[in-house]
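Task 17 of the worksheet. Students: predict the tertiary structure of the chain below and write it out as structure tokens. Keep your answer in the requested format; marks are given for formatting as well as content.
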Amino acid sequence: MNLHHRPSGHPTVAIVGGGVSGAAVALFLNTFAPDTAEIVIIEPRDTIGRGLAYSTSDPVHRINVPAARMVLYADDPGHFDRWFTASELVRSDPHAGLPDGRQFPSRDAFGRYIGEQVALIETLSHVRGKVADIVRVADRYRLTCDDGRCIDADIVVLAICHPAPTIPSSLRALAGSDVIVTNPWQARALEAIDADARALIVGTGLTMADIVATLDRQGHRGTITAISRRGQRAQTHATTPQDPYGDFLNPPPSTATALLREIRRTLAQAATEGLSWHAVLDQVRLQGSSIWQALPVTERQRLLHHLRPFWDTHRFRLAPQVHAVLERLRENGQLALRAAAIQSAARGDDGLRVTLRDRRTHETNTLTVDRIILATGPAHGSLFHDDPLLHNLQQNGLASPDVYGLGIAVDHGSRVLSANGQAQHQLFVAGPLARGTFGELMGVPDVARQAERVATAIASLPGLNNRPEIGARTAE
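Model answer:
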């Protein structure tokens, strides 16, 4: 069955994935090429704009930057902050606001906000499904969903969400059993955990923090141990707002070591002026894409291998409300963080006996728990193996992984590179899976800026005949 025959005569733009990245492309395309393209978003969820991060309905899962910095529209940075303040949600969430005026709403609230913006697009249709294959047919693409439906499109945007975490080899024997939660984002995944259960969380980043916050909201009384290779957890925000500090582009560092030295030098200088590390790393984040693109491939790989864990724990910060929960549980002894790796796990008479190897002492010891919860983050390295669509795209010669194992290889115009390295002018990637080329591409402002560039490129293609002005917007 062919769903779209272009009855209007306008080109069809198919966006695969309806999270924030896909929604943002649709919003900007509607601005740059209004009434000149049919926009189809293929997304299995019932709503557009939520994706993995904003599909949660748990009120303790909060955005991890103040609402004023959740910038979707570059020409109106306070749009979401005003929307939330004017909505009924601000009254139903009295803990969202801090005394200093910053607001950290729930992620559900931001998902609703994106959904309302997308609902204004009259030329958009939502196909509830999952794309399993894309092939080139003459000068168009044919997208086949996993239920057999087909969609023909002139232009395709891959706005695919992060892949699920991979079960560590030491825990694979427990896969499929009720003692291990492999996907904590699955609806009600944590509700079945008994309040007195001894829990082991594998991972100490933002996902771990969300899991602990949920367990605490549910009245969890059992001990919680969180482990990771380095035992580092996400930091929280500065107690008072600070402007970004420093400059890492004049000139840009040419090695990962030079970048680290410059960051340390700038941190020391900032301290003499009474600023915390937050201001310095905020500047690194703002200049991150340019820093990344100035580094040669080998230095980018060194940066990922040696510095990425430290960057992640300082870049991706906890909402103060979530940080307070973790601090309270740590202080009362209910939550412990350890730098350790799992050697083995087996069922015992008194629970799951997990052998841990301490990273610092290299000693092993046994921890007995009742439940294990994975919070190891997306498995980007195996993306083209595990994701059926990307696997088929690679088999068809239409796409390939980037050299860093972060996602899909694209050029600087976000166009997918084929197996032979040729840019495909009608096939784009929007969102974090393009960060192998762009570096910093995880936060909403970064995703929105890249989505705007993708929409600009599409609107400039023959057949749409538009010359969009960056920053222009009609949706309110």
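Marker's comment: The CA atoms of residues 170 and 344 lie 5 Å apart. The longest helix spans residues 256-272.
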